[in-house]
Amino acid sequence: MTIAVTGATGHLGRLAVEALLTRGVAAGDIVAAVRSPEKAADLSARGVQVREADYTKPDTLATAFSGVRRLLLISSSEVGQRLAQHKNAIDAAKAAGVDLIAYTSILRARTSPMKLAAEHKATEEAIEESGLTYTFLRNGWYVENYTENLAPALQFGAILGSAGDGRIAAATRADYAEAAAAVIAGEGHENAVYELGGSVPFTMSDVAAEVSRQSGREVVYRDLPPSEYVKALVDAGLPEGFAEILADSDVNVARGHLDTDSVDLSRLIGRPSTPLADAVAVALKE
């Protein structure tokens, strides 16, 4: 059975390929579908099939999905262009006769008010309309959203945001990748919807406290009105549109939209999700 993973040189996609290999899937049965095959030379060297697959070039998708039985569709990173790109992949999967498509969506995609949820909701609907058998992997926030760039927090002694005391059921990319591999290589997940979140939710104040504890430097969480948070992000060099999306996400954290009591993630991976403390420890070593 041939399994394809799109975006296989991205953060989540590469971890998903690794998780499939760890589960015992033969390298030759894995297709790393990537925009730039040269970036996947290491995977090719290990026996993984590397095929060009650009969401904006349907002909590459048709070739990449040839002979594929199961497809892990990693959502595009290009916010605002995702739906059109995903539809190209869905059409190509249907034409190729893919048996199952697993899509990395967002927590409670159909009801979430987050701006980021709109394209995920529309993609889920497009997959259903295609008639393909599916699994929706509704991923919560990545812990790495908070840990992979701690230098400014350590430099200035503060983490900024507009999340208030909202709880975040985040997990690491590796946790979500492991769940995706369990689904795409496993059985019994046809037309299932999984709400995936971390086992122990945390607040932004918890993140600041953990960074302080492990770094030995005082770091606090400074909650800002959304407009001020947008300004701070723009001043730090982010495009205004992206800054507004981040602020919107934080506002929805405060309202509880990135918290969940679902145990789907821990059940799929057979263990609790990676603790915040472990993720912070890794980040501080890098």
TrEMBL record:
Alphabetized CDD domains for the sequence: TMR_SDR_a
InterPro entries found in the cross-reference section: NAD(P)-bd_dom_sf, NmrA-like, NmrA-type_oxidoreductase
Pfam families: NmrA (PF05368)
Residue ranges of domain NmrA-like in the record: 2-247
Highest taxon of source: Bacteria
The protein's name: SDR family oxidoreductase
Organism, as annotated: Phytoactinopolyspora halotolerans
